[in-house]
Write a structure and sequence with these properties.
It contains 14 helices and no strands. It is an all-alpha fold. It folds into 2 domains: 4-151, no CATH class; 163-335, no CATH class.
Length: 348
């Protein structure tokens, strides 16, 4: 018989890791890709790409909900019904739409699965129960969920402008840690709407983890590991972190330095899609998001041009400083005997 701790652990993995991770993929495949395509279309004068990107962004809610259902192994009728649930929850959730989708898609999925394949008219019962559960709950609680997420996001952004040093450290370290752990930093940033200076700090923390691990493990993983971690995900190091948590110190300390440098010195802001704040160098999405924000600011008249200092700050915060700082810290920990050759080897 499962103990209470095992039950909590199982459901935490199911909802906070599997479901949230899938939700981030749904966001990536709709909102984020749509934003990138729209930006390319705008910059290249191609209205068709702008239109296609707009369609992709409009499907964020359904994409997230279906991705969640897929991760939870929904039956086909439940899975397809979640598309409408995601649209309703994301729309009524406002700025906190992704968080509303996460919560309500999970509930609708679980209720839908209770009746799935239990009746002779399953093709009618299952979609009706799934959709009505998710839609009615969306009307009841999605606005409140959205307001709560928006309030927390506003608080973090306000705190970052008031205390850029302290909050630069906290946001950078915590979001960077979330990126490496098997939970979704991208989904967290999107749900809380982490943009502006707070978004810039989040980008710094994520880049420190990805670039940091890619560089300090180069002796073990060579070029394959450099690309897999630097342009893929530092999550690949989780099994090694479990075996020796000290390997995590170098990139985490690097993020504690690059975060406040981003907020206090370079004033790096993420004013593109909030999901980009939690992507780091994954496919260079974080950097594309920053650039998208610059372009939008120019279009809005709040920025006159993209300056050389903007580019210097972006390159230093996202690539050069994470690599150099992580190497310095890693060398110190290797001399102390905390980290040894092979500790960060990947099975690539």
């Amino acid at each position: 018989m499962s103990s209470g701790k095992e039950i909590v652990r199982r459901y935490a993995k199911r909802y906070l890791i599997d479901a949230m991770g899938a939700m981030a993929q749904g966001l990536f495949a709709s909102l984020l890709v749509g934003t990138i395509i729209s930006t390319i279309g705008t910059q290249c004068g191609l209205p068709l790409l702008v239109e296609i990107g707009g369609y992709a962004k409009a499907m964020a809610g359904p994409a997230m909900a279906v991705a969640i259902g897929y991760a939870l192994k929904a039956s086909p009728l439940v899975l397809f019904s979640l598309a409408a649930v995601g649209h309703v929850a994301n729309t009524l959730g406002g700025r906190g739409g992704p968080l509303a989708v996460l919560i309500l898609a999970i509930i609708a999925h679980e209720v839908g699965m209770l009746v799935s394949k239990k009746t002779k008219i399953d093709i009618l019962v299952t979609p009706v129960v799934t959709l009505l559960t998710g839609a009615l709950l969306s009307y009841l609680i999605a606005p409140a969920i959205g307001q709560a997420a928006a309030w927390l996001g506003d608080l973090i952004r306000w705190g970052t402008t008031q205390q850029p040093l302290l909050m630069g450290i906290l946001v950078s370290v915590l979001v960077g840690i979330a990126l490496t752990l098997p939970i979704s930093s991208a989904a967290i940033c999107e749900a809380l709407g982490l943009v502006g200076l707070a978004g810039g700090a989040a980008v710094a923390g994520c880049c420190a983890q990805m670039v940091g691990f890619a560089i300090i493990s180069f002796r073990e993983n060579r070029w394959g590991g450099l690309v897999a971690q630097g342009l893929g995900t530092s999550m690949l190091q989780v099994p090694n972190i479990v075996r020796n948590p000290r390997i995590w110190l170098a990139p985490t300390l690097a993020s504690a330095i690059t975060g406040p440098l981003a907020t206090c010195v370079f004033h790096l802001e993420m004013n593109g899609a909030a999901i980009s704040s939690g992507m780091g160098t994954c496919g260079l999405v974080g950097q594309i998001g920053v650039y998208t924000g610059w372009v939008q600011e120019i279009a809005d008249g709040t920025r006159s041009a993209i300056t050389a200092m903007d580019w210097i700050g972006l390159v230093l915060i996202c690539f050069i400083l994470p690599a150099l700082l992580s190497l310095l810290f890693d060398r110190l920990f290797r001399r102390l005997g905390w980290v040894k050759d092979g500790d960060m080897a990947l099975n690539l």
